[in-house]
Amino acid sequence: MPNIVEAELSYKIGGLCFKVSKQLGRFCRERQYADKFEQLLKEKGIKYEREFEIKKLNIDSPNGNKVDFLISGKVLVDFKAKTFITKEDYIQMQRYLKAANLELGLIVNFRGSFIKPKRILNPEFVISDHSDVNSSFSNR
User: Would 1 be classed as within a structural domain?
Assistant: First the structure.
């Protein structure tokens, strides 16, 4: 059986996204979904950083590269509220993952009839220690 990257954590994230979708429906703004998701993260005691600037992990990353959430220092999560996820959305997440040297990113689009978190893997991932960043996480 293949090893699924961050299986338990991504399962928890997916479950919270389904709760958000059920509570808010299909036609809210990304910010509203992110606010509700953040509330659920706090309730579950899951460590995260919101609107995480990739530059914190990689000084060479351009300014302004922000992802909606960095969960437990391991998984990037980006929310969308549009008709469909585009190739550019995948490319953006790949760029974030490479710059942050993280293995897994999730793109969640709340506009569709059903949410299907898209798992994006970083093929250039190299195991390293982000302990300086992980220790700064809080349950905001």
Answer: no
